[in-house]
Amino acid sequence: MKEIIIILCLVLFLGCKGTASTSAQLSEIRRNLSYLASDNLLGRQTGSIGLEKAAVYIEEVFKDHNIEPYFETYRDSFHLNDLVGYNLVGYIEGNDPTLKDEFVILGAHYDHIGQGSEVNSDVIANGANDDASGTVAVLEWAKFFSKTKQTKRSILFTLFDAEEMGLKGSEHLARRLKAENLNLYTMINIEMIGVPRAKTQIMAYITGFNKSNIADKLNSYAGQDIIGIFPQEKQFQLFMRSDNYPFFNEFNIPAHAISTFDFSNFDYYHHVDDEVDKMNFGHMTSFINTMIPALEGMINAPTQEIRLTDE
């Protein structure tokens, strides 16, 4: 009887500990997104003071969690006429003597449009879903892999500037890394994961579903179906409208975007009401954590199991 009581107490303790850990992570996700999508950042338009504040904040997260810069600094700078843009690139070197020479990129864009049409005297387009949510996901994965150090391949955590100006930041970085002969295995871009899909739908969808076997492999690594297809994807040309596309073009490798926004579950795309209070932080936390074993499987697979298809 005494042994049963001890076991029950242990189970309850571990369960409470896990709940507390998840609660702490949810709070951290809320805190980071609340800053990135705050009025203080003025909508994070390329070249603005608000975007500079966002960049400094992201750099501090990288530094605090021992994420190294891939280049001399975290910033990959580029010019757009009279504007200077900068992608932010963090780096974790793989620990396998051979596989560390292969790279995986996990990315999202941290810029937004600045201002939108006025609603109730508000003109700041905060971009909570688009794409502070994706930025926070990439930061959470950077913190996770830095802590566990279980990465056979090397990882670049890339936060792109000037996505809203036509993928200019990702185009610049893709060309630069291609010129440096980076051995890129796969690229995943996270785009708008702040709201859940309908309960009848799979958790998330991937653009360019038929261009590679990545969805099947990620689901296999995760041990459950978390990535599916969005039937209207081709109609909206989503594969070509996100920061995965320049890497697909430059490297001819599996490069896709993953999203939970499907045009039916959020009314505030490029709208001043894309605010923090519209985000579902329970969903975001669940998505981020559910994706971890899928990412681990991709990063640590002994061979390159993810491949382009003929389509």
Write the layout of secondary structure elements.
Elements: H1 2-36, H2 49-64, E1 68-69, E2 75-80, E3 83-92, E4 103-109, E5 114-119, E6 122-125, H3 128-148, E7 154-160, H4 168-179, E8 184-190, E9 204-206, H5 214-222, E10 227-228, H6 233-236, H7 245-251, E11 255-259, H8 281-300
Parallel strand pairs: 4-7, 4-8, 8-11, 9-10
Antiparallel strand pairs: 1-3, 2-3, 3-7, 5-6, 9-11
Helix pairs in contact: 1-3, 1-8, 4-7, 5-8
What would the keywords be for this entry?
311 residues; alpha/beta; two-stranded antiparallel ribbon; globular
Helical stretch tally: 8
What is the gyration radius calculated from CA atoms? 19 Å
Distance between the termini: 63 Å
**Overall pLDDT score:** 93
- Overall SS class: alpha/beta
Q: What CATH architecture would you give? A: 3-Layer(aba) Sandwich
Number of strands: 11
Shape: globular
Describe this structure in words.
Helix 1 packs across helix 3 and helix 5 (214-222) crosses helix 8 (281-300). The protein has eight helices and eleven strands. Helices cover 40% and strands 19% of the residues. The chain is of the alpha/beta class. The protein has a single domain (2-300), classed as Zn peptidases (Aminopeptidase), CATH 3.40.630. The strands form two sheets. Strands 1, 2, 3, 4, 7, 8, 9, 10 and 11 form a nine-stranded mixed beta sheet that branches. A hairpin with a 2-residue loop joins strand 5 (114-119) and strand 6 (122-125). The chain is globular. The protein has helices at residues 2-36, 49-64, 128-148, 168-179, 214-222, 233-236, 245-251, 281-300, and strands at residues 68-69, 75-80, 83-92, 103-109, 114-119, 122-125, 154-160, 184-190, 204-206, 227-228, 255-259.
